[in-house]
Amino acid sequence: MSRISQLQLEQVKKCSATFVLAVNDTMNVINGKWKLPIVGSLLFGKKRFKELERDIPKITPRMLSKELKDLEMNGIVTRTVYDSIPVTVEYELTKSGESFKRVLDVMVEWGLQHRKSAMGNMK
Predict the structure, then answer these.
(1) Is residue 3 pLDDT above 80, yes or no?
(2) What is the reported pTM?
(3) Spatial distance between the Cα atoms of 26 and 21, rounded to a whole number of angstroms
(4) Which of 76, 86, 105, 106 sits CB 3.0–4.6 Å from 97 for a disulfide?
């Protein structure tokens, strides 16, 4: 995935239709309850299926498999099958998936601030 220049980004921000389209494209790739936790887990390195299951509480094997296929189809995750007995399969982020770390960092920061603010308002 090529990096977008600051000038291009500023132009997108000035056009509401283009801005909304870009946000929509992002949401289409990461939609659902489980994709962000999967990406978050893979930010810490390659993982096998069972490792991902352990990292993400309450996800079913069927849902994990479906979400991994979607992420692979969208170029966020790669699946590597090793010719071993038994067969070993590892998942890792692509360059595009790794670049999502910046987005997750901002989301975590916002979530912590929001939780602090929301809890403060409940007192």
Answers:
(1) no
(2) 0.77
(3) 9
(4) 76
Q: Are 64 and 34 in contact (CB under 8 A)?
A: yes
d(CA 16, CA 51): 41
Contact between residue 104 and residue 63 where contact means Cβ atoms under 8 Å apart: no
**Cβ atoms < 10 Å from Cβ of 97:** 23
Structure tokens at 100: 């999502």
Mapping DSSP onto H, E and C, the string for 14-73 reads: HCHHHHHHHHHHHHHHHCCCCHHHHHHHHCCCCEEHHHHHHHCCCCCHHHHHHHHHHHHH
pLDDT in tens, 37-74: 999 999 999 999 999 999 999 999 999 999 999 999 99
